[in-house]
Amino acid sequence: RTPSSRTIAPRSSACARLRRPPGDEFPMSAAFDLVVVDVHAATMQAGGAPYGIVRDAAVGIRDGLIAWIGPRADLPAHAATRTLEGGGDWITPGLVDCHTHLVYAGNRAHEFERRRLGATYADIAREGGGIMSTVRATRAASDEALAAQSLPRLAALAAEGVTTVEIKSGYGLDTASELKQLRVARALGKRTGVSVRTTLLAAHALPPEFAGRADDYVDYVCRETIPAAAAAGLADAVDAFCETIGFTPAQTARVFEAARAYGLPVKLHADQLSDTGGAALAAGACGLSADHLEYTSDAGVAAMAGSGTVAVLLPGAFYALRETKLPPIDALRRARVPIALSTDCNPGTSPVTSLVLMQGMACTLWNMTPEDALAGTTVHAARALGLHDRGILAPGMRADLARWSIAEPAELSYRIGGNACSGVVRAGEPAFWHSRPA
Ligand code: DI6
Ligand code: FE
Q: DSSP class of residue 436?
């Protein structure tokens, strides 16, 4: 066989289109914008080898999508405008960080230090610290200042293979400031090339203006903030903090109802510090995800089973809060609830900007397997955002992929620290691709 004779010009060439007989899909040849070779692929496709592994793989990319993936020996004869050599590294789907609060202003390191020196949360709250200090700083920041302070956090995630990030509001707690957070989140996505999904979390905490009037604040969120976010097209979903120190299940249900009225899907901070029935509430509302879940009961897990609601677990907050109650991982597994992992990047309880580290912590602290951990930052994390076009490497999916200088996929969960990410392609565009010393 003579590949060159079957090779056609790239699809972008008008000539190739004109010459192409109707219905002829050129099964023996193809045109790609980009081809990735000399890699092993953990495709995360289910039903085959662990991790969906394809050794000595090649990927053909066209129009921002994966057009072909398989063993390099089977790569169709093709024309490609560009080839990326992987140097024997591994590739995975681009990672998806599906629960972050990374757009905020200020810094709470001094509170961390004071607590280590003996101050209590109550002392710090009395002095106006804690979450309200972040709210004050975020309200006071201009769009530019907020973006400048938040950019390094997004950049750190992106440098470690994250190609999609969810970013919540929740440090504005008034309509204008909540919208400012969402606007900055979207702008950071444009600026960095990372795919950003925004979530309105106005029901995160009670702002000082509504002290003692939580129901009035929920009214305000439902009548003003949700409609304004929907009208501006700034929110992809709505979230709430359902907790004894947050909002009650009844208040949460009202937030969900308002979200539904505006066609916005919901997610929930559920059962993080106590069992308030949050997991069942989220599943009952057809939520995209229920997040945290340390205190979720068997009944909560049963409610999630078969609901399609993804369990998003957050090892960084578990660690930083010195939590000892493990999320019900075995029960979730038995109930076949998909489990995602995320950084929960926030200044109070999870100052984390490494999603890969969350994989390792989930394995070591919770006994998850490295394969489940990688599924948790790829395919299941995408589903937690309602995204079905990414999270696995397969034809038709967005060509979001991360390259890693590792010897096998388990190394992503095994290593603690360092950054093994050696390349990223986002929607078919190389963001970086390090050549390795020979
Ligand atoms: N759960 C948490 O642990 C954080 N928010 C939430 O919903 C706390 C956020 C903060 O302290 O800034
Ligand atoms: Fe959170």
A: P
Q: How confident is the model over 119-158, as pLDDT tens digits?
A: 988 888 888 889 999 999 999 999 999 999 999 999 999 9
Q: How far apart are CA 193 and CA 200, in angstroms?
A: 21
- The alpha carbon of 241 and the centre of ligand 1 are apart by a number of angstroms equal to 8
What SS3 class is residue 9?
A: coil
Residue 435 CA, ligand 2 centroid: distance in Å: 37
pLDDT at residue 57 greater than cutoff 50:
yes
φ and ψ at residue 39, rounded to 5 degrees: -140, 155
CA gap 145, 202 in Å, rounded: 21
Note whether 61 and 34 are within 8 A (CB): yes
Pairing mode of beta strands 95-97, 162-168: parallel
Task: Order the strands of the 53-62 sheet from edge to edge.
Answer: 65-71, 53-62, 34-42, 83-93, 401-404, 421-426, 429-433
Q: Residue 73: its pLDDT value, please?
A: 97
From ligand 2's centre to the CA of 8, what distance in Å? 50
Residue indicated by tokens 């930083």:
320
Nearest listed ligand to the Cα of residue 349: 1
Task: Give the pTM.
Answer: 0.93
CA dihedral 401, 405, 406, 408 (to 10 degrees): 40
| Distance of alpha carbon 147 from alpha carbon 238, whole angstroms | 22
Ligand nearest to the CA of 346: 1
Q: Tokens 């076949």 belong to which residue? A: 336
* Residue 236: closest CA among 346, 46, 98: 98
Give the number of other Cβ atoms within 10 Å of residue 71's Cβ. Answer: 12
**Distance between CA atoms of residues 408 and 420, nearest Å:** 12
Please, which pLDDT band fits residue 435 given cuts at 50, 70 and 90? confident
